[in-house]
């Protein structure tokens, strides 16, 4: 695991002012005790690396002191801005969960921006919420723990489950997922499963994946038509807490205008607990078309599930 050294801990009692280095900070479920930015929101604790300070020190007349970018924690040893929301920083029992990378620039309202014509905090500062609190001080070490998304791909096909037909949609979906999540620098774990078109087996599999509370995304392929063995939407829909109809409506209309047969698909999408579920057709061409649209919204959807305001 990557280790990051804390160089300074800083507090400001009023918003819009620089923070002042202190000997220690105490973290609770609202953020840094005594800090103006503490509260019941997703940006409770701010961090900025010395590496970012070094960039600004070349373009500003005076030497910048830690806290001048209004960060609570100044670090050294790793580019914080390369992290992703839901990654974690851990020090002993303290757990910080990353919620945002960068922020809106205050522009002319920022003294550093007025002097240098630039400010690094909006690009390279990061924000966290406190999962578990405690006391931090200069010299403490934060351990960086990237969040890997757990993706389960379930192919529903009698013939594929019996070995008389090669599953093509499952491996394709795995490949498309790997390419997409690599493009947004998000680590993933993927597992493929093949089941027959059986309502009870489908329900049992999906229910188990939901209940283990470690599955972030479930993709199923197959069984979305109106044939005698097409049961997938019927088996999964009762397990959803909330349906997300817009994605599938868009896909059916978009591709149905080109190929009217696409309108017959009964694909659904929804949420069960903190698990996203997408029920896709079994045709590889359709899998590509569906994921082209789903991937555009999936990161924002995950943020919404975890109450991260990324608007």
Give structural notes:
The structure is a single chain. The chain is an alpha+beta fold. It folds into 2 domains: 144 residues, M1 Pyruvate Kinase, Domain 3, CATH 2.40.33.20; 157 residues, MoaB/Mog-like domain (Molybdenum Cofactor Biosythetic Enzyme, Chain A). It has 9 helices and 17 strands. It has a 7-stranded mixed beta barrel with strand order 1-6-5-9-8-7-11. A 6-stranded mixed sheet has the order 13-12-14-17-16-15, with helices on both faces. Helix 5 packs across helix 9 and helix 8 packs antiparallel against helix 9. The longest helix has 22 residues. The chain is elongated, with a radius of gyration of 24 Å. The mean pLDDT is 91.
Write the layout of secondary structure elements.
Elements (H helix, E strand, L loop, with lengths): L1 E10 L8 E3 L2 E4 L2 E2 L12 E5 H8 L15 E4 L11 E4 L2 E8 L9 H6 L4 H4 L1 E7 L1 E3 L4 E5 L3 E8 L1 H5 L6 H15 L4 E8 L3 H13 L5 E5 L10 H5 L5 E2 L1 H12 L11 E5 L2 E6 L3 H22 L6
Parallel strand pairs: 5-6, 12-13, 12-14, 14-17
Antiparallel strand pairs: 1-2, 1-6, 1-11, 3-4, 3-10, 5-9, 7-8, 7-11, 8-9, 15-16, 16-17
Helix pairs in contact: 5-9, 8-9
